[in-house]
Design goal:
Length: 264
């Protein structure tokens, strides 16, 4: 009995594959559309895509085009082809603004771009683009059922930009480019006032100001020591029991001692 069942499954699969191959070569667009829908419903999205690609030019403007292009977009999304999915969903929204699927398509189009955002250490051009797309969706559909997901995606993407900006600023400190570090940390703190890296940013800003001051030429030392002192005060004001307290206090003692030389 098991052999018979297995044989029937093999025969069914063979027939299905045979029918699919015929549909690919068939000039009958209706038969091709039927097979594409069958492949889509069965979750065979890669096969469906091949048929949709053949059908798309001849179905534009036809009554069934809305269904076809929705399935086409979803098939790219389901196979993780996010550039193509984003493009197709955007085209769907533009072509069928009154569709009942328009909000879903608008969200998935924007969300597809978020899937392309790389890790924070790489170039963040795609992250910025995804944020723009998601913000446009939020602005256009503020009451959508997808708003929570969109906001979550925005938070994740902003986190990548935040980490990138912090690591860039810290990188200047690491290579002893203290002037650039001071500017970068100021920009970072201004751009991300609620950042979880604020304590670290304030310390490394202080460290940059300190290193710049104590290694400065005499003509610029007093001014730079005062800048370092302000940076120290900002750190302990933000968090009096900072994890950097011992090191920061030792550095500040040196700053105070050096400043006394300019008051005599």
């Amino acid at each position: 009995m098991k052999r018979i069942v297995s044989l029937l499954i093999v025969v069914a699969l063979f027939c299905s594959c045979s029918d699919y191959q015929k549909a690919l070569k068939n000039e009958d667009v209706a038969a091709k559309f039927e097979m594409a829908t069958k492949m889509y419903d069965a979750g065979k999205y890669s096969k469906a895509i091949r048929l949709f690609e053949q059908l798309a030019p001849s179905y534009r403007g036809k009554p069934q085009a809305e269904k076809l292009f929705y399935m086409f977009s979803q098939s790219y999304y389901k196979t993780h082809q996010y550039y193509l999915a984003g493009y197709q969903f955007e085209s769907f929204v533009s072509g069928y603004p009154r569709s009942e699927k328009v909000q879903e398509a608008a969200f998935l189009g924007a969300y597809s771009y978020s899937k392309l955002a790389p890790v924070y250490s790489l170039d963040q051009t795609d992250t910025v683009k995804a944020l723009e797309k998601l913000q446009a969706f939020i602005d256009n559909y503020p009451n959508s059922e997808y708003i929570a997901q969109a906001n979550e995606a925005v938070q994740i993407l902003n986190g990548k930009l935040e980490r990138k900006a912090y690591e860039n600023a810290k990188g200047y400190n690491t290579i002893s480019d203290y002037k650039s570090a001071l500017v970068a940390f100021d920009n970072f703190i201004a751009d991300f006032p609620g950042t979880s890296y604020k304590e670290d940013a304030l310390f490394y800003k202080y460290d940059s100001a300190y290193q710049l001051a104590v290694n400065s030429i005499p003509q610029k030392m007093e001014e730079r020591l005062n800048v370092a002192k302000v940076a120290y005060n900002n750190l302990v004001k933000f968090k009096s029991d900072t994890k950097y307290k011992k090191q920061a206090d030792e550095m500040n003692a040196r700053v105070e001692t050096d400043l006394q030389k300019f008051t005599k």
